[in-house]
TrEMBL record, chain A:
Species per Swiss-Prot/TrEMBL record: Desulfobacca acetoxidans
Record region (Disordered): 1-31
GO molecular function: cytoskeletal motor activity; structural molecule activity
NCBIfam families the UniProt entry points to: fliE
Pfam families in the cross-refs: FliE
Protein name in the entry: Flagellar hook-basal body complex protein FliE
From TrEMBL, chain B:
Flagellar basal-body/hook protein C-terminal domain location: 93-136
Domain called Flagellar basal body rod protein N-terminal: residue spans: 7-34
Top-rank taxon, per record: Bacteria
A GO cellular component entry from the record: bacterial-type flagellum basal body, rod
Species this protein is from: Desulfobacca acetoxidans
Protein name: Flagellar basal-body rod protein FlgC
Metal-binding keyword on record: no
Length: 96, 139
């Protein structure tokens, strides 16, 4: 339930470096990392809501809704990552 | 993000209906309560709902509104008087005042709260499935 920050995450299989390619840092990497931190924020929020619901402080549906938001955000992030990888593979196949 | 706006609105509806349910449960539980800290029988409570802008400084053009509980009001109308001198809370004339809670009306409100909750869940689900379908466009 926790996305490790990029750069120091050994478990983060899709860290920013693996995507930006050999051309050095690109604006895409920045965008991707912004999305990554936004998704992580949503997941932390979901964690907080679930904890509150389990402790009886918050409402149950708020926890489920926060989880759904995190789920949707992660799905969107995965789609963006798929597009980035597809674009990179397309470029790497290009004949020079 | 904009896709979460409908979810926020549905969430506010869910919260409001939960609070309504709390008040209805309180009414039903206290349908025969004759003693309160304020003295006298329990008074029926009703939830008043109000709209609330989704964003803090929402523009007037885009006035989508959430729902929130404005206040919980007590009503002292229709208190039931019954002659029962053996009751400890009877007055000098032997009249006991019972709460003005009508269990049938409360059950109707309960069903309405429950159905409105379901409707909000359905709206949330529709928004979620639309978002998931949007992600599948490029597939």
């Amino acid at each position: 339930m926790k996305v490790l920050p990029t750069g120091q995450g050994e478990a983060g299989s899709w860290s920013g470096q693996s995507i930006s390619g050999p051309g050095g840092p690109s604006p895409d990497k920045n965008l991707f990392q912004n999305m990554l931190s936004a998704v992580q924020k949503q997941q932390n929020q979901a964690d907080v809501e679930v904890r509150r619901a389990l402790l009886g402080e918050g409402e149950l549906h708020d926890a489920i809704l926060a989880l759904e938001k995190a789920n949707l955000g992660l799905r969107l992030l995965v789609q963006v990552r798929n597009r980035l990888v597809a674009a990179y593979e397309e470029l790497s196949r290009m004949q020079m | 993000m904009n896709i979460f706006k409908s979810m926020e609105i549905s969430a506010s509806g869910l919260t409001a209906q939960r609070q309504r349910l709390n008040v209805i449960a309180e009414n039903l539980a206290n349908a025969h309560t004759t003693r309160t800290p304020q003295g006298g029988p329990y008074l029926r409570k009703t939830v008043i709902l109000e709209t609330q802008p989704v964003e803090e400084f929402a523009s007037l053009l885009e006035n989508s509104a959430k729902v929130a509980v404005s206040e919980v009001v007590e009503s002292s109308e229709g208190l039931v008087q019954e002659y029962n001198p053996t009751h400890p809370d009877a007055n000098e004339q032997g009249i006991v005042t019972w709460p003005n809670v009508n269990p049938v009306a409360e059950m109707v409100s309960l069903v309405m709260a429950s159905r409105t909750f379901d409707a909000n869940v359905a709206a949330f689900r529709a928004g979620k499935s639309m978002a998931l379908k949007a992600l599948e466009i490029g597939r």
